Amino acid sequence: MSLKTKRTYKFLIFKVNDDGKEIVVDARGDRDGKWEQLTEQLPEHECRYAVWDHDFTNKEGRPMSKIFFILWVPDTAKVRSKMLYASSKDNFRTMLDGINYELQATDADEIDYEVIIDRCKEA
């Protein structure tokens, strides 16, 4: 809700806590946060969930915002972690309100900023 309605954050990154029983906030991006700040905070060998609030101007020149849910599952992550994040994704995502798009990425190329821009061209 802080991201969608209050627009307090540009992005949030979540992780499953050490005992595997709770999903907690791992990082927050201020409202003026950049895409690179989000991607730089995704660990190379660990899974994460992320939510990105993307502001853009549509074809008619109207300012818009779309919220992306990202499942970060790098190829180098442990199999147990991959399974945990994959199995809890749907339940966690349903608790988040206002998600417009979903991305799953296993390496940095799959979450390039151009992917975000291309998805918003439909709006």
TrEMBL record:
Belongs to the actin-binding proteins ADF family. The keyword Mitochondrion does not apply. This is ADF-H domain-containing protein. One of its GO terms (molecular function) is actin binding. The keyword Zinc does not apply. Residues 1-121 form the ADF-H domain. Keywords: Actin-binding. One of its GO terms (biological process) is actin filament depolymerization. Pfam families: Cofilin_ADF (PF00241). InterPro entries: ADF-H, ADF-H/Gelsolin-like_dom_sf, ADF/Cofilin. PANTHER family: COFILIN-RELATED (PTHR11913). GO terms for cellular component: actin cytoskeleton. Signal peptide: none annotated.
